[in-house]
Specification:
Radius of gyration: 32 Å
Oligomer: single chain
CATH superfamily of the largest domain: NAD(P)-binding Rossmann-like Domain
Number of strands: 33
Distance between the termini: 31 Å
Structural class: alpha/beta
CATH architecture of the largest domain: 3-Layer(aba) Sandwich
Helix content: 25-40%
CATH topology of the largest domain: Rossmann fold
């Protein structure tokens, strides 16, 4: 498989505007009618033919920014004005002048921009946004990677911050959306069929007063040189699966010294319940941890499924012949000192990968923090973290970030399917992990920490395919680095690495987050809760203030807080005191009757006017009650220890029963419940389970975190709905 990339130093040559529009028109993109004149007399004749007023432009392939160069003359109403404009254009353009372009003068208050450029990672990218002279100043643009579907094009229109100008605007008719969509789809088709075109810039796309779309200026930049950058072949998902299920492990480079990698990985693996065979390998032989140390893998009596290598980089290559002879198929290369150190390390890494491929060895790393699979008690990582078995698969390009995420998951009770620190990704890439988790039946959510992508097209295609089956939640590192895009056009100048990556995530259905804790919050939700079918929230709160805050946050996150139906109000009237809020949010007014939350949340979940329920402050009251009982015990001897213990146990029992009811109701109603705890303690989890139930209860520490998760789940649900609509179209 090869990836077409554009050389940074490749030669580019622009077409003149008329030649550019000829190509655009052939792809169904609406362009202004125009004619070319070779001199001033011809320009006057064409102007008379088209009818005044007209526009005159200097024409020439080197004249790429005519407006900035003063080579565009608007609203010319008679012959002398045309002759004067032609003379001024000739003087300013000099030897770059190829002729004059004459167009009808079109009026419209709205100007848009669209175009193409070729991203080194993701290939052809389509841009659309607010145009005219403020294009780069306002930078209100959106991107998609070709090929575009009609739904992609529609999303691009709706994503503009200034999308309201596409409707009826200051007395002008709404934009013809079909023409805009056709323009974007036409650009996508050009991008795929004409690899010789490096950039296209349509600025402005003028919108007439009647809403018609017309490209009145166009730039096409050709690329006469391409090259094919080889990329790694894909790894068979079955081989990736075998990596996480070794029946035997050899620690090559075992050490007896506490704290060294060769000792640490072994001790963590051996101490956490891994049931497979463990072999220790070091040329010195002897015994470590009261186990036999073999001088070489060839001396190991049994079969080895996985070799964990911690010897210095210079010696790794020499291991491969013995690995091949021993039949070792998987190597976890912990060792650093390869491509991350510079050119010499990069050369060594490339040689290592080539030799490993020839030997039929799957190489993970180098410079990796290890792997874990809690489902078989395998914890072979550089940190003492042991999350429970679950359905969230985790891959991190930063080992420290990955193990920190595992530590959070362990603390919060989030179950992990498998983890790998992908390291330098010399052979096994992030795309290979994605495709492996795609076919894994246990994985329900894929969680990624990504800093760079080796093969952008494959990453996007894999993520799009996986995202239709299970959510991918992603945190991107290095977001602030600007891309090194060519800036021959507005289209190129407006692009950056982060913008393009964000567009890829939207297009592929990846749920992209901005903070590391968001990864855990969303993974907990996706692996525990049913997807919301829409964005309508019913809010139940213990106290009015939190409800107000939650309602405000709903507006911020694009969530609706619908009014309660009359019938639902009537039902709640029979449960709550007459001074309850009688609106959404439902304030249960601090009543101490522990049956109230159970009854109200059931009514809200069964109400067809909401898609999810937010419950605030119901969980965590046991902490307040315990503190109250402690104060009473110290100050009022008339209350017995037995009574105070019973009071505490009542709240503990309530929270258990409340959690069980939420889990049962989510199964019955197929709606998520997002909990926010009143107070939490160190030992409290985010996720609470009931045996043999498909869903879990999830409680967050703040309304912001809960509603952010709700909004992201709605975003993913919309992606799935669009995919379904696209199939039906």
């Amino acid at each position: 498989m090869e990836n077409i990339n554009q050389k940074n130093d490749c030669h580019k040559q622009a077409l003149n505007e008329n030649e550019s529009k000829t190509i655009l028109s052939s792809y169904g993109i609406p362009v202004v009618p125009e004619k070319v004149a070779s001199n001033a007399d011809e320009a006057v004749a064409i102007a008379r033919e088209l009818g005044y007023p007209v526009v005159l432009k200097a024409l020439g392939a080197r004249l790429m920014h005519k407006t900035e160069q003063g080579l565009v003359f608007l609203d010319l109403k008679e012959d002398n004005a045309v002759r004067d404009a032609a003379a001024r254009a000739a003087e300013s353009a000099g030897n770059d002048l190829e002729g004059y372009l004459i167009q009808p003068f079109m009026k419209g208050a709205r100007e848009l921009v669209a175009g193409i450029f070729r991203d080194p990672q993701f290939g052809p990218v389509i841009m659309f946004g607010l145009g005219g002279i403020y294009t780069e100043a306002l930078s209100d643009v959106t991107f998609r990677v070709a090929p575009l579907t009609r739904l992609d094009a529609e999303d691009m229109l709706d994503e503009l911050k200034s999308h309201k100008i596409l409707g009826d605007f200051r007395g002008e008719t709404a934009v013809n959306r079909d023409q805009l969509i056709q323009t974007l789809l036409g650009l996508s088709k050009i991008a795929l069929e004409r690899p010789d075109i490096a950039e296209i810039d349509l600025n402005p796309l003028l919108i007439s007063r009647k809403g018609q779309v017309c490209a009145v200026d166009a730039l096409i930049v050709l690329m006469d040189e391409q090259y094919y950058e080889p990329v790694s072949p894909a790894i068979d998902p079955r081989d990736m699966g075998a990596l996480f299920y070794p029946r035997s492990i050899a620690f090559v480079g075992i050490s007896s010294k506490i704290g060294k990698w060769g000792h640490q990985l072994f001790t963590i693996t051996a101490s956490r319940g891994y049931q497979g065979d463990i072999y220790l390998v070091n040329p010195k032989g002897g015994r470590i941890a009261d186990r036999t140390v073999y001088p070489s893998v060839m001396d190991v009596p049994g079969k080895i499924d996985l070799a964990v290598v911690t010897i210095p980089a210079a010696g790794v290559l020499k291991l491969l012949p013995d690995f091949q002879a021993k039949g070792i198929k998987n190597v976890l290369l912990i060792t650093s000192g390869f491509a991350e150190t510079g050119e010499a390390g990069k050369t060594l890494e490339q040689e290592l990968v080539q030799s490993a491929r020839q030997a039929g060895i799957l190489l993970v790393g180098p410079n990796t923090m290890g792997i874990c699979n809690p489902h078989i008690g395998l914890y072979c990582t550089g940190s003492h973290v042991w999350p429970i078995a679950g359905s969230t698969a985790v891959v991190a390009q930063s080992g420290n970030m990955g193990t920190q995420l595992l530590a959070f998951a362990e603390k919060q009770g989030i179950g992990i399917r498998a983890f790998c620190g992908s390291g330098n990704e010399a052979m096994v890439k992030i795309e290979d992990f994605i495709e492996a988790f795609e076919v894994d039946t246990i994985t329900r959510t894929v969680m990624l920490y990504v800093e760079s992508i080796k093969n952008g097209r494959r990453f996007m295609e894999s993520a799009l395919r996986v995202g239709k089956k299970k959510p991918i939640v992603l945190l991107k590192g290095g977001q602030t680095r600007a891309g090194s895009k060519a800036a021959a056009s507005h289209t190129g100048a407006l692009a950056s690495d982060s913008r393009i990556f964000d567009a890829v995530c939207r297009q592929a259905g990846i749920v992209k987050v901005n903070r590391s804790m968001d990864l855990l919050d969303l993974s907990a939700a996706f692996s525990s809760l049913p997807l919301p079918k829409g964005n309508r929230a019913a809010i139940m709160t213990l106290g009015g203030g939190w409800g107000v805050v939650a309602a405000d946050l709903c507006a911020e996150f694009g969530l609706e807080v619908p009014e309660l139906s009359d019938s639902l109000i009537a039902e709640i009237d029979t449960i709550l005191p007459p001074y309850w809020s009688r609106s959404n949010p439902v304030d249960i007014v601090g009543e101490n009757d522990l049956t109230l939350p159970l009854r109200i949340i059931e009514l809200l979940l069964k109400w067809d006017g909401c898609d999810a329920v937010i419950n605030l402050g119901i969980m965590g009251r046991r902490i307040l009650v315990r503190k109250l009982s402690e104060s009473v015990a110290l100050s009022d001897p008339t209350y017995s220890a037995e009574f105070l213990a019973m009071m505490n146990q009542t709240l503990i029992d309530f929270e258990k029963k409340y959690t069980e009811q939420i889990i049962q109701l989510m199964e019955t109603c197929q709606k998520p419940v997002f909990g926010v705890s009143l107070l939490t303690e160190e030992q409290d989890n985010m996720v609470y389970r009931v045996e043999n139930k498909p869903y879990n209860a999830v409680y967050y520490e703040t309304p912001e975190r809960a509603l952010n998760v709700f909004a992201k789940m709605v975003q993913y649900q919309k992606f799935l709905s669009r995919q379904h609509d696209s199939r039906d179209a």
